[in-house]
Amino acid sequence: MTFTFQSEDLKRDSSRKMSQQHLFSLAMEEDVKTADTKKANRVLDHEKENTRSICLLEQKRKVVSSNIDVPPARKSSEELDMDKVTAAMVLTSLSTSPLVRSPPVRPNEGLSGSWKEASCVPSSTSSSGYWSWSAPSDQSNPSTPSPPLSADSFKPFRSPAQPDDGIDESEASNLLFDEPIPRKRKNSMKVMFKCLWKNCGKVLSTAAGIQKHIRTIHLGRVGDSDYSDGEEDFYYTEIKLNTDSVAEGLSSLAPVSPSQSLASPPTFPIPDSSRTETPCAKTETKLMTPLSRSAPTTLYLVHTDHAYQATPPVTIPGSAKFTPNGSSFSISWQSPPVTFTGIPVSPTHHHPVGTGEQRQHGHTILSSPPRGTVSLRKPRGEGKKCRKVYGMENRDMWCTSCRWKKACQRFID
DNA sequence: CTTGCCGGGTA
DNA sequence: TACCCGGCAAG
Asked: Are residues A203 and A339 in the same domain?
């Protein structure tokens, strides 16, 4: 809870400073929560790699998820539904391409889980979502967080890059915990309306329905269902489910977008406090085209997933790389980290541990030269000396220095 | 292992 | 100082 607030405040202030602290704390929390899960996942991951069969992978995940006790209790039935839906979408996308799988998962989690549970009462939906995913990124860099928009853009790219990481998968498993039920959302295109009210993930197929839900359930306007001042708009978001797009996305990483759309709204909303009276203001009204919204959201979510992965800045480039490589993507991921280190985390001053270490290393190296204390021994001359020229047999032919085992005077370098 | 030669010891 | 050699580091 505390964290959430901090992040919120900081964000509003538009000061990115917080990112570091926030991230750290989040990361810590995340680790604790998912530690068990991660272990299990890693083991599974291993197996996965061996088999390489997507199907198997999927199954394993499911198993894992079931084993892991994800906190079902805290989610309401409605929430669960949402999760399932999102999970289904994710799975669908994943099934298409193994690489992508990890990223998608996280986003969902972030959305449904984090922000729902969220502690975000009125304050910020986005923050909750934000931290939820950010936390995972231990390695990651804090840099991403800094600029909201820019960060978003980065995120999407990054997520794709992460393909093989066990960590992601583990988290994903958490999200997936319940078997995703694709059937529901399988339709190529479907527009749903999701209630953004804290702790309420209700999704309805009609705007009217969701509005009514909000009015009656959350705004307490029971009787006057007709009365609508438009406030409900702030509390729900339009979700566009597009199976087709998802499938495509898989190949290109796009998959995330669909699920993200859900999540995104919350995130963005925070900033636009102006619009909403309540903290949980609805991001964009349904008026906005789903597409417009989805794009950003997608990115945002993706970002979240990989945020902890750090490499972030690399973004697109990385994703592009790994996409082509299919199996090798894992490698691509790794490279990013390196890059990342090199890349200054940017504006944020926080020095991620990883980065710091690297930097320090560099320093140490530089400093090392001073050590000079080492003997001044001049580099051994390359040319042949008496010893080698004349051989041990003709030692009498050597120069005196050579005879004395001193620096050769005859064949000076 | 071979080379090159520094650091030291001895006469 | 002239000579030698132990031993290290580089190759």
From this structure: yes
* pLDDT band for position A190 (cuts 50, 70, 90): low
Structure confidence at residue A229 as a pLDDT band (50, 70, 90) = low
Q: What is the mean pLDDT of chain A?
A: 45
Does A371 reside within a domain? Answer: no
Which A residues between 368 and 387 have a beta carbon under 7 A from any strand B atom?
Answer: 375-378, 380-381, 383-385, 387
Protein residue minimizing CA–C1' distance to C10: A380
Quote the number of domains for chain A.
Answer: 2
> Which residue's CA lies closest to nucleotide C3 at its C1' atom?
A404
Q: Which amino acid is at A175?
A: L
Choice between A323 and A397, residue whose per-residue pLDDT is larger:
A397
